[in-house]
Amino acid sequence: MVIVMGPEATQDDVESIVAIVRAGGVEAFVSRGVERTIVGLVGDVTQLDQANLRGHAGVREVVRVSTPYKLVSRENHPERSTVHVGGVPIGPGTITLVAGPCAVETPQQTLDAALMAKAAGATLLRGGAFKPRTSPYAFQGLGEAGLRILADVRAETGLPVVTEVVDARDVDLVASYADMLQVGTRNAQNFALLQAVGAAGRPVMLKRGMNATIEEWLMAAEYIAQRGNLDIVLCERGIRTFETATRNTLDVSAVPVAQRLSHLPVIVDPSHSGGHRDLVLPLTRAAIGVGADGVIIDVHPHPEQALCDGPQALVQDDLPALAAVMRDFPPLLGRTAAEAAVPA
């Protein structure tokens, strides 16, 4: 069961509802989004007086939700949500391009990649300062030095920063630099990390685990939502199958399925799914065509020198084609390309 608070609800209204619920022996978790506040109930709710709850100040409705992912489900919130990152929307009315280097390597490399991304129509900058790698000997990222580079590049380009956090102990540090926290595929069921980013006060991009079912993906999002954060964007980045021609297998069907089951925005990562530069643009077109709310793409000024995932990064010569996709495809689907936030 969830209690949906109206926009007029005060903090006192929310705290009063939580007190009533807990007095009835039920645990309450408060989750806040840009547009609404939800109180999720865990326990035996049959003893609660639902009529009394509905009549309480600030309560819009009390909803019984049958799915295990109660807060992120369409049962709870039939209308699809829009998440704003540094003023940039990700949601059903727009298509948002997130682009940048897979890994932050140097200030110049990151700035050059950010300018490439912006030229292609990106309104959010991706870049990894912490890199979870399969091999312990591979480049693991620059850590806080990389975060400082991203902050400097944001100041120069105006692009809000999306960056990955890999350890619950680093969440506060990364959140102090980032506009959006990314949880990668290898940490998609790291429940301590999911809970920590849920409490961090930043929008979260949750990539699908490479071995995860769609329900497991949504349950991971529920961990974030239950800790107080409804500003979650789901990212389909390819799953592990028997096929070896691509790095992973892009599950385009996951986009409409996740949108049917959840109100959260869904974007696609054509870079990590395909793993090859020549696949990125075709997969981008497929993602937008199937209804994705955005794409996240690797670009690099010199991918042959990249310390991470160079073969999948787009180069300068690819940018006109990417810009054309972002210009021409959204209107065909009744959408617009997301625009950069207007400075206050």
TrEMBL record:
The gene is aroF. This is 3-deoxy-7-phosphoheptulonate synthase. Residues 1-66 form the DAHP synthase ferredoxin-like domain. Pfam families: DAHP_snth_FXD, DAHP_synth_1. NCBIfam families: DAHP_synth_Bsub (TIGR01361), PRK08673.1 (NF006421), PRK12595.1 (NF009239). Residues 87-327 form the DAHP synthetase I/KDSA domain. Keywords: Transferase. The keyword Transferase applies. Gene3D superfamilies: Aldolase class I, Phospho-2-dehydro-3-deoxyheptonate aldolase, domain 1. InterPro entries: Aldolase_TIM, Class-I_DAHP_synthase, DAHP1/KDSA, DAHP_snth_FXD, DAHP_syn_2. It comes from the Bacteria. The keyword Transferase applies.
